[in-house]
Amino acid sequence: MFLHVGLGNPGPEHKLNRHNIGFMAIDHLLNFYQINDNYKKKFNGHYYKLSHKDRNIFFLKPQTFMNKSGSCISSLIKFFSIKPSSVIVWHDEIDLDKGKIKVKFGGGHGGHNGIRDIIRYIGEDFLRVRIGVGRPDNNIDPSKWVLSSFNKNDFDGWVNDLLSIMASEVELLHLNNSIDFMNKVSILRNKQNIEIK
Q: How far apart are the C-alpha atoms of 56 and 106, rounded to whole Å?
């Protein structure tokens, strides 16, 4: 059993924000698994449930706003008896260049308030899929940067292309092959000549 959590803020005004790349990742996972059902509203979140290869996979978008995600996740995993170590959190990372990814199990929050709140509720032992959105120019506040939207070229280009590739290789994460996942995504990204400006 696995739970994929995408971090983001609810509401149409945040839909294309850099901070919402976790929500975008969940959308690509739903598309990859061809999940067309409506989400269920519970635990202050929107979640989907899939039976796949004799196991259940859950997909969750907390609706509590980014910095309060922990209670939503904690409630769901307690209800469905999911271990924290089976939780996979997809989120933005300003300390990674645009389009770079890093997968890590456990550790601290690295200054990410969404991760900080999750740790508060379920501890550190979960997988994080960090998706680089890059740091802004020196004259732009980082908090304003992540709450600003991708431009159309970025969103229609490298963002969607990268998330589609990542979704296609997600089974490697279920097999605990984080390094293989990162390598495969890198190879496919280079093969497709995804341009990141």
A: 23
CATH number of the domain at 137, please.
Answer: 3.40.50.1470
For residue 64 the two structure tokens come to: 């509590």
Give the closest residue to 34 by CA, choosing from 15, 55, 50, 56: 50
For the chain, what is the radius of gyration of the CA atoms?
16
Cα–Cα dist 18/138, whole Å: 17
C-beta atoms surrounding 34 within 10 Å: 7
pLDDT digits (tens, 9 = 90+) for 84-138: 999 999 999 999 999 999 999 999 998 899 999 999 999 999 999 999 999 988 7
* Domain ranges, residue 138: 2-191
- In this structure, is residue 121 part of a structural domain? yes
- Cα first-last separation, the chain: 38
Q: Side-chain half-sphere of 72: how many Cα atoms within 13 Å? A: 26
Q: Could you give the C-alpha distances from 32 to 6, 88, 141, 166, in angstroms and in order?
A: 15, 16, 35, 10
Mind listing the pLDDT tens digit for each residue in 27-42? 999 999 999 888 999 9
* Catalytic center residues: 19
In a domain, 172, yes or no: yes
- Identify whether 8 is part of a domain: yes
Torsion of CA 31, 2, 89, 178, to 10 degrees: -90
Q: How many structural domains is the chain composed of?
A: 1
Is there a contact between 5 and 19 (Cβ–Cβ < 8 Å)? no
